[in-house]
Amino acid sequence: TVFTPVHAFMNISPSLKNAFHRPQTLVFSDGLNLPNHPTIGIGGEPLLTRQLNQNDNIELRASGSQVQSMPDDFVPHYVGNDKVLRFFAYFKEDCQYSAKEVYRVRPVVIYYYLLDNTMEMYEPAVENSGIPQGKRIKRHCFPKNEHGETYLWKDLNIDVDIEVYGVKYRITHCDEFTKRFMERGGIVLNTPQDIPVDPYTKRREFHIPSHTTPSCYDRRGKFLAMDGKVHELDSFFLFE
């Protein structure tokens, strides 16, 4: 009797199929819903895009069996999500009553708390700016539109605008932890941008001119030394 080897990826007869539901495309990890690319299609058949070719099978057989690693320690939802995303942004403020400036560029820092999807905004203090700075918007869920929706971390990205209470903020870049978190969540981040320089602040930056008194002739020193001193000369003349 000759036995024919059965391949791992075989076509199942339609009469033997008993699972016609759609494959799972979402997973629940660390309290967050993340996308998951399916490996099988409807009916349990493996997807053509996920089937291994002959070279992959040879490489897997040569590499040996995979050693199963120990599972990670359980981390509660409120501990795993006790992280903060940090974005750097700016907004332009029109100056209608100033003859020396048309607009101001005001940088801000946006914090997003993963625990409860709240956000807050700070404006770094600039020396001698003359405007109130510090906490700009307190921590709460930022409204996204008039329908009651709020901003989520999936709505944020680099080089995009978000509007909060009628002010448009341009996100320019983020820190390294935020970048890794967004990429793990399936968000493709845009190219980081630089915050524009405020024209009025740049114009105010000037160097104090330095003056070196020449050593050959000191006018001020001579004035201070000779002040109050008068030469007296006696003379006479003859009449012929």
UniProtKB/TrEMBL annotation:
Looking up PANTHER family in the UniProt record yields: EF-HAND DOMAIN C-TERMINAL CONTAINING PROTEIN, EF-HAND DOMAIN-CONTAINING PROTEIN 1
Is the keyword Heme assigned to this protein? no
State the superkingdom: Eukaryota
Organism the protein comes from: Cynoglossus semilaevis
What are the DM10 domain coordinates in residue numbering? 81-186
Name the UniProt record assigns to this protein: EF-hand domain (C-terminal) containing 1
Output the Gene Ontology cellular-component terms.
axoneme; mitotic spindle
The alphabetized UniProt keywords are: Cell projection, Cytoplasm, Cytoskeleton, Repeat
Cross-referenced Pfam families: DM10_dom
InterPro entries in UniProt: DM10_dom, EFHC1/EFHC2/EFHB
Q: Name one GO biological process term.
A: cilium-dependent cell motility
- Which PROSITE patterns does the entry link to? DM10
GO molecular-function terms, A-Z: alpha-tubulin binding
Q: Does the keyword Repeat apply?
A: yes
State the compartments where it is located. Cytoplasm, Cytoskeleton, Cilium axoneme
